[in-house]
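Below is how a single chain appears once it has passed through the pipeline. First comes the sequence as given, then the structure the pipeline wrote out for it. We keep one example in the README because the format questions we get most often are answered faster by looking than by reading.
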Amino acid sequence: MVAQVLQTYGTDLVLTGADGVKTLRGFFRAVNSKSWLSMESEATLLGEITRGQYTYIGPADGGAREGDTLTLGDRNYIFRRVEPYYYENQPLYQWGLCVEKGVNDTWGSQS
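Resulting structure:
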């Protein structure tokens, strides 16, 4: 059922990684995962928070890995974390946390 929801309501996303380039359908949106970001009062017209992070929900067999790139339109995002979500020992979908490449790709660094 989750795969059907992703296919029906998801957005085309291009995944580039060690296995090559492929198009899959999933959900992708800006989020505030750090408490200080939740205090931000300004957002762009699309609701994007400038210093934000982005969540991804995609097919269980999507093959996304940390360090892979996700392309949506003319923007590229880097996976910082990817995990499968299970129900009764069966993977339902992949969840990921991304940052925009070239803008936030130093997220989590010691610099």
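Residues 7 and 82 are 20 Å apart (CA to CA).

See the next section for the split statistics.
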